[in-house]
Specification:
It is built from 13 helices and eleven strands. It has 385 residues and is α/β, with parallel strands linked by helices. The chain has three domains: 38 residues, no CATH class; 52 residues; 261 residues, 2-Layer Sandwich (Nucleotidyltransferase, domain 5). Strands 3-2-1-4-5-6-9-10-11 form a nine-stranded mixed β-sheet, sandwiched between helices. Strands 7-8 form a two-stranded antiparallel sheet.
């Protein structure tokens, strides 16, 4: 290649004939300039500066750091031999070249002298992992929650009932002066008339969703309506994070994009803006909604009757106490004395008059063994309006 250039051929013609770039040919010709071809160093080497980087710690200092670490590990009264302890010892010995704490840490890491194990980050469980059908994507779940404590200028109190589906991210919001159990039922029926029935409806333990807590074996209005529509109500564990992540995230988005973004002088203006926001979120999630598990059509002949004995299944997610027990429907049930302070899925099977308790592990979301099964019958008593 260089010989061809020296015979009078241009750099570009030589580059084309050898299938190389012009810059490559120019570099090799420049390296051989003024010398016989037999005396040129043709070895490939990087174009940048060679040798040790200017900011690299000298090898003798690295060796001294390692020796000090070993010495401190065996003789330190404090039992400390990390990067900070090594630097303190270098200062005490008045070394002329003392690396920073971070540099000493890099030396220890580079030379494989660290004892600690790196934290293993495991992937989180799938959506709805605590309900096998939901995790498998066979059914949909709608999560509901209430945002409280909002006041429009002029002293108008506002509460918002929010909803979002787990797989499809289908949203809904109802700003009202106050959210009651009656209004919640009306909103659920209106929403499910429009979009269809999910397999599960998920709530926290608010009395407006679950019913009064001071009466045992009490099922509230919302629970009874869900059961009458063959929608399984799911109640998340108190003071637990993660189970309500989807609806809590939507609560935050609604407040940031609607409540804090505009000035409202009336409830009507807030409702109008909320309606626009919900429509926009649904339009953005249209593909995800279509890919979500199918919903059942709302039954045309359905009539609300709260006095009909409830049938179906209710799911309570709970954590056991020191003795492997959980409190449910006003009673204390013994689950497993070895399963203490652990998550449990409690299923109240009203049709078969049975309570079943399943172990839940986030690390092994598909392994949910049955811990206990006991008979349970909901007392027949009229619903108090």
């Amino acid at each position: 290649m260089v010989a061809a250039v020296r015979r009078g051929n241009s750099l570009r013609s030589v580059a084309r004939s050898f299938g190389l770039g012009y810059t490559t040919v120019h570099r090799w010709v420049s390296r051989a300039e003024g010398r016989r071809l037999g005396r040129v160093d043709w070895s490939n080497r990087p174009s940048g500066p060679t040798g040790q980087p200017a900011n690299r710690v000298a090898a003798d200092i690295e060796d001294e750091v390692l020796k000090l670490r070993q010495k401190l590990r065996q003789t330190s009264d404090l039992g400390e031999y990390g990067d900070l302890a090594i630097r303190r010892e270098l200062i005490r010995q008045r070394h002329s070249r003392i690396p920073s704490v971070r540099t000493i840490g890099r030396i220890l890491e580079r030379r494989g002298a660290l004892d600690g194990n790196r934290r293993v980050r495991r992937p989180g469980p799938p959506r709805g992992w605590y309900l096998p059908e939901l995790a498998a994507g066979k059914v949909e779940a709608d999560s509901f929650d209430i945002v409280e404590g909002l006041v429009i200028e002029g002293g108008i109190d506002v509460e918002i009932l929010n909803a979002i589906s787990l797989h499809g991210a289908l949203t809904a919001s109802w700003p009202r002066p106050a959210i009651t159990s009656r209004l919640t039922v009306t909103a659920l029926v209106e929403h499910w008339h429009q979009v269809g029935l999910p397999g599960y409806a998920q709530f926290d333990n608010d009395t407006r969703f679950q019913g009064a807590h001071h009466y045992p074996d009490n099922l509230g209005r919302v629970t009874r309506v869900c059961l009458s529509l063959q929608v399984t109500p799911v109640f998340t564990p108190p003071r637990e994070t993660g189970f309500q992540a989807a609806i809590e995230s939507y609560n935050g988005r609604w407040q940031a994009k609607v409540w804090r973004r505009f000035h409202f002088d009336s409830l009507k203006s807030l409702q109008d803006q909320s309606t626009k926001f919900v429509a926009a979120t649904r339009a953005r999630a249209a593909e995800r909604v279509l890919a979500a598990p199918p919903r059942r059509p709302f039954p045309r002949s359905w009539q609300q009757d709260l006095q009909t004995p409830p049938m179906g299944r209710i799911v309570f997610l709970r954590r056991t106490n020191d003795h492997g027990q959980i409190r449910l429907l006003g009673h204390l049930f013994r689950v497993d004395p070895l399963w203490v302070h652990r998550l449990v899925r409690s299923e109240v099977d009203l049709d078969n008059k049975t309570l079943r308790f399943y172990a839940l592990r986030r690390r092994e979301p598909t392994n949910q063994p049955l811990l206990a099964q006991i008979p349970y019958q909901l007392p027949l008593k009229p619903f108090q309006e």
